[in-house]
Amino acid sequence: MNQQKICPHCGAQLPDMASFCPHCAQSVTQRREFRPPRRLPRRVLRGALLVLVLGTLALSAYLYTRPKVYDNGAAEVIYTDGDGSYQLLLNYFGDRFQPMTDYSEELEEGTTSNKPSRLFINHVDTGVNAKEAFLRKVEAITVELLRGGDSPEPWQYTQPQASDYDLEAASRSILTYTDRSGDMELRWNIRMQNGDTIRLYQRMALGVVPTRHFYPEDVPMDTMDALQALVDQVNETITSDIIVYIHLPAVTYEGSLLLEQRSMNLIGSEGPDGVRTTFTGTLQATAQNGYICQFQNLCFTGDGEGVGVSASARINFNHCQFTGWRTGVLCYGSSWVNIKDSVFEDNTVGFHFNSTSDNRNDHMYSGNLFQRNDTAVLLESVPGDQALYFEGTRFSRNGADIDNRCGHEVSIAAAIFE
Amino acid sequence: MYSWLSEQLRTEFEVVRLLKERPRGSVRLIRHNAGGNQFILRHFQGNGEVYRRLLSCSCRHLPLVYEAAEQDGENIVIEEFVQGDTLDFLLKEALFSPQETKQTIKQLCQGLWVLHSMAAVHRDIKPENVILRGSDAVLIDFDAARLHKPQAEADTQILGTTGFAAPEQYGLGQSDTRTDIYSLGVLMNVMLTGQHPSKKLAEGRLGRIIQRCTQINPAKRYKNVLHLMEAL
To answer: Do A223 and A253 have their domain in common?
Structure first.
């Protein structure tokens, strides 16, 4: 036998395999004490499981029923409750299905503008306007400015409310801002009666369009030659991304004026004796570059022949007067002309629309007076299919009020015929 | 090792008395000459692997195995002499209360858990093989024990004690740890009623536990001794 092990108790030699020393009757091996693992009683486990399941259910119920916040940082949220799903969105314009989160606008220097932020609510499944059903569940609606409230001329807003002029919208807030108001971020907060909160956002990047003004005190413009020279000079020296205002003196210009290349704004005036800025010759506007021309406070007085203003440029007339022309205003080519608060009288044709524009503009022809014209309005060709509105426009003693040759839809419900 | 141990036993120990004599082996009480300590000396034929595995472990509900040697199927084992009365002896006087029964069976489960966790099955649980040492029950005699082989279909030898042995020990299937659970069920019933559960089943909840322990189909018994302990 190979003696390979020594008893730690008595020092006797033992076989390597020995676990016991027969000399001193002691164990010479390491022992591990075995104890069965403690099992939790099954009923305890069942109880714990039950508590866990009930806890999970309670947590789920709590999470399901606790007030939720709908906030995705955009102008659209889909809100679902027991009655169905609603699409809530913000839009500056009238399309109640089109959310507008980010929008950019350019404003002229020194001007103020406003825009409504409109809240629309649609049923997701049917697309019908769900504002009434939804508003019954609303506790409160507020708006707040996240940006644009601390600029040199801060953005202003009205608290949201329904408007009779905006029947499609559930609510709206009117934003007022200037070229110095800077960028804006607006948040609508809709608190529901069940505690939920819905947040909608609109952001506007406000650009400022550089503007140049020419006044008679600074630049010669008393005669048609001087005015034409100024117009030509503007055409040659000022690019069309800069808005140009020419503030005209209260004088009568004889002869024709040609506005070509770039657009510009002509602003007439009235002298102390009541004399207004008047053109007795034709104004021909063919300018295609730049912004829409704004013509304000101008009189165009003819001798029964010719065209007061022939426009293939886009022009908005405001507070102008057209008297004694074969045609007061002719809109042709691919232009769009809008006229508000102006007077057409004693013309063969007051306003002649004969254009194929892709660039439609304002359809509201409101506050005008057409009187003693053979034909007040001649619609030969009007682009698009949206109606022209003559709200508050008076037609008085014309041979024909509206000669609608092209059959374009016209709204005269709010017009006045005498 | 076997020869060396045999020699040492002759020289260092003396036999106090013969405790049991069986065809397959014997059990003797021996005393160490020098120290006077008493041990149990087992001689038996068969597989002594279970004893060898117990050399390195201790459990208060199993006797300490001090040495185990084998040669040509002959085994010598020196183990702790557990002083106390066997259940067999005690049952001649009186039955056990349900509380005592539960405590004893739970302790036997702890001892069996050691065996079962080393893939061994006792296969001979009966009152004679349980000694009460004070308040501790100690399970003795692993001569019939064998290692459980999952693949084997039936035991090759019929071992165990009639009445306490599970049906699968008679060739109906291979014995596994649930075989011992059957025997524990019978033992529990005997402690409570003095009879085999087929003759008189204990009443109440313990009776239902015994019923489950003694199902013919091992799959319907408790899955292991931990489940039985939990039920108790």
So the answer is: yes
Tell me how many domains chain A contains: 2
Residue A39 DSSP one-character state: P
For A240, the token pair is 């069309």
Q: How far apart are CA A86 and CA A125, in angstroms?
A: 8
Element (H, E) at A294: strand A293-296
The fold for domain B2-80 equals Phosphorylase Kinase; domain 1 (3.30.200)
Inter-chain CB proximity A32 and B39 less than 8 Å:
no
pLDDT band at B117 (very low <50, low <70, confident <90, very high): confident
Identify the pLDDT of residue B154: 41
Check if A43 contacts B (Cβ < 8 Å): no
In the predicted model, is pLDDT for residue A387 greater than 60?
yes
Report in angstroms the alpha-carbon separations of A217 from A210, A234, A246, A247. 21, 17, 11, 10
Last residue of a domain, which of A184, A208, A232?
Answer: A208
Q: Which residues of A touch B68 (CB under 8 A)?
A: 19
A128 CB within 8 Å of a chain B CB: no
Q: What is the DSSP string of A304-362?
A: SSSEEEEESS-EEEES-EEES-SEEEEEEET--EEEES-EEES-SEEEEEEE--SS---
**Global ipTM:** 0.80
Q: What is the dihedral of CA B100, B106, B108, B113, to 10 degrees?
A: 180
Note the helical H segments in B118-224: 177-193, 204-213
Global model pTM greater than 0.90:
no
Which one from B72, B88, B124, B176 is the annotated catalytic residue? B124
Sheet holding A369-371, edge to edge: A252-253, A278-279, A299-301, A321-323, A343-345, A369-371, A394-396, A416-417
pLDDT of residue B147: 65
Question: In this complex, do A18 and B12 lie within 8 Å of one another by their Cβ atoms?
Answer: no
Q: Answer whether A391's CB lies under 8 Å from A368's CB.
A: no
